[in-house]
Amino acid sequence: MIGWFAIEAMRQDTRPPDLSVLIIGQGFRSRGYQAEFEVANIARKAAAGVVIRGHLIKEDRVLETVEATLDYVPMQSVARDGLIFHHDATGLDIQIAATGYSEP
Q1: What's the pLDDT tens digit per position in 85-101?
Q2: Which residues 6+ apart lie within 8 Å of 35 measured at CB?
């Protein structure tokens, strides 16, 4: 048993979470324009309090910025959420990225 714990401790990855964001859907909703997204964490370490920030861009100008916080993104998994913009985003560029997290 002690040997198993020693091996697991040596194999433990100390690298931080590796988060990427992909827009998986968008469209009008009753309260605005919603962009649905996935956050993938390919690392062997979980992330908590993951801050996601989205920008609605028209001709290189930011029209609106919105933010959401995901409670938890487990290691080597995907979490889904959405951002709601007040402006109509039809034909505009939406950029969404993870901007921060904490260790659980």
Answers
A1: 999 999 999 999 999 99
A2: 23, 25, 26, 54, 82, 83, 85, 89, 94, 96
